[in-house]
Design goal:
With 566 residues, this protein is of the alpha/beta class. It is built from 19 helices and 19 strands.
């Protein structure tokens, strides 16, 4: 693992902000490094206000979208809310359908079957709409590349409003309205919204258009926060505001579906990490193992007893998913080993009976072990389907574009994508993908990078410092939990290996060999590093600060990410 200390910001700005905010220069340095270099910006950052959300009508297509929905309501048309089967898609469908249903009773939902229809808008979904006299489809978290599908719908007299956040192709569908802040001619001030958040902006526009109180939207923010967390979009700007207030809804007045999940894990307060690792996998498991509509049903359920039954069922899907992704990951790692591909620039694996619902998770697991741009393929009908994941700093979407002659369909982001292809193209694609990555990747990106925000002498760690650090949450891309480096520190002599087979390291760290200050620390999966710190040898340690509660006592501890001899 390579350690990279972030460039330290302008010292004059840091000193000025430190005085303005009356905080430790270390904190001021962290803030300036995140673009927060003045009192007003710091106020917005620490106290995100819903009043700072942008006017939704700044988004290209918003007027047309609102007008078409109002027309549908006036004409008593049935509106179908259509979304992808992942967390972003199912939360978006739950949000849009329940919001529309709060004032209009002809609303239905549709989630494509992951295995029969695949990702995005499907012909089967359009046929379903046509067979049921549905004349307006609102597509969420998908549709930006569905040019042929939207044309097909138009021929059947069905209009589309598309709410997406994926990168558009050269052309966009001929829909009534296309809401996607990533369109090159869209001047919306923030283009990092997830699909659910784009849907929320459409709801906000309807509220403004009808002169309703904004407060009616607040209960839906728990869905938006969950989508933001799960979709790994930057937690900056508008996303930070939505996520901050959405977490507050989850922790103070969660909807029945969330409440029933939280009861299962017996946690009092959830942070963004809990949303990512507790709520999101369960919502995802429905679409992966069964059908995405199970997740939507849970999210819109208002009866707590019914929600508990549905949450229990979804928890069972999640257990099945965990067992399956562990098994497939082991098989994929073995395949890389058997094919002697550990030293390639990419990891591309395939087995036709791998479960399509978990190949994205398996791709993420492989990048943790073999730090390479990765694709996991399986058979889906008469085609191959794959999930792609990348390493930090490398755009896998661009790499796939350079292999497009072998791909039938693909879409996604810089770090994650999905694709389909004909089976006979697999070996050609695999060879080409390796060549593209080899030619375009900076070789240092193939070694996992540990980004460090600041040097922090242990003596500077105080309760006040930690309390302010906590207020920098919610953490996520472009606002990660601060990572610190302390140099030439010592073990206080109590270090031991703990956990199964001693794979973790528990110790107390002191700044100098004769210091009486000792700070507890835990290093998960670092048990093998015990020899580095024994016998009074100085070492450098990279960590995040956190609270540890044990037997009713809460104290500060360091969660070690890596350590090396000084």
């Amino acid at each position: 693992m390579r350690w990279t200390l972030s460039p330290q910001p302008d010292a004059v700005l840091v000193e000025q902000l430190s005085k303005e905010l009356n905080v430790d220069p270390i904190l001021a340095s962290l803030l300036v490094g995140r673009g927060i270099d003045a009192f007003a910006k710091a106020k917005s950052f620490f106290r995100p206000s819903l009043e700072e959300l942008h006017d939704p009508f700044l988004m290209k297509g918003m007027n047309e979208a609102v007008h078409r929905i109002q027309k549908a309501v006036g004409n008593n048309e049935t509106i179908m809310v259509y979304g992808d089967y992942d967390v972003d898609g199912t939360t978006a469908v739950a949000l849009m359908s329940s919001f529309l249903s709060s004032f209009y009773d002809k609303v239905t939902t549709y989630i494509p079957d992951r295995y029969k229809e695949g990702y995005g808008i499907s012909y089967a979904g359009i046929d379903y709409a046509h067979d049921n006299d549905i004349s307006l489809i609102i597509a969420l978290d998908c549709g930006i590349k569905a040019i042929d599908k939207v044309k097909y719908a138009k021929e059947k007299g069905i209009d589309f409003i598309i709410c997406d956040h994926h990168r558009p192709g050269k052309f966009v569908p001929d829909a009534v309205a296309v809401l996607d802040p990533k369109q090159h001619d869209c001047s919306y001030p923030y283009d990092e919204l997830c699909g659910c958040a784009v849907g929320f902006k459409l709801c906000q526009a309807l509220v403004q258009h009808n002169d309703w109180e904004f407060e009616i939207l607040i209960p839906y923010l728990d869905l938006v926060a969950t989508a933001i967390a799960a979709d790994i979009v930057p937690i900056t700007g508008e996303n930070r505001i939505l996520c901050y207030h959405g977490l507050n809804v989850i922790n103070t007045s969660p909807r029945a579906g969330f409440k029933s999940i939280i009861e299962q894990v017996k946690k009092n307060t959830l942070d963004i990490t809990d949303v990512v690792f507790i709520i999101a996998p369960r919502i995802n498991a429905a679409g992966r193992m069964k059908h995405g509509l199970y997740a939507v049903d849970l999210l819109v359920e208002q009866d707590l007893d019914q929600a508990r039954l549905k949450a229990k069922e979804i928890d069972r899907y999640n257990q099945d998913r965990r067992e399956l992704d562990q098994l497939i990951t082991e098989e994929a790692l073995q395949q890389i080993h058997d094919n002697k591909e550990e030293k390639l620039f990419t990891s591309v694996v395939f087995k036709e009976d791998w479960h399509k619902g978990v190949i994205g998770i398996v791709a993420s697991r492989l990048t943790e072990t073999h730090y390479r741009p990765t694709l996991v393929f399986t058979k889906n009908g008469d085609k191959l389907a794959a999930s792609a994941r990348s390493v930090s700093g490398y755009d896998v979407y661009n790499a796939l574009e350079q292999c497009s002659e072998f791909i039938e369909q693909f879409g996604g982001h810089k770090y994650a994508a999905g694709l389909t292809m004909q089976p006979e193209q697999f070996l050609n694609f695999k060879k080409r993908f390796e060549e593209v990555v080899c030619a375009t990747i900076d070789k240092k990106l193939l070694t996992k990078e540990l980004k460090i925000d600041a040097l922090l002498p242990l003596e500077r760690i105080t309760g006040k410092l930690y309390r302010i650090l906590k207020q920098m949450a919610p953490f996520g891309p472009r606002n990660m939990r601060p990572v610190f480096l302390s140099r030439a520190v010592y073990d206080s002599g109590y270090a031991k290996r703990v956990g199964e087979n001693g794979k973790h390291l528990k110790l107390a760290i002191k700044p100098h060999i004769n210091s009486s200050l000792q700070i507890p620390a835990i290093g998960f999966n670092l048990g093998n590093c015990i020899s580095i710190i024994q016998n009074n040898k100085p070492f450098d340690v990279v960590y995040v600060l956190e609270e540890n509660s044990w037997q009713g006592v809460t104290s500060l501890q360091l969660r070690i990410k890596d350590l090396k001899p000084h």
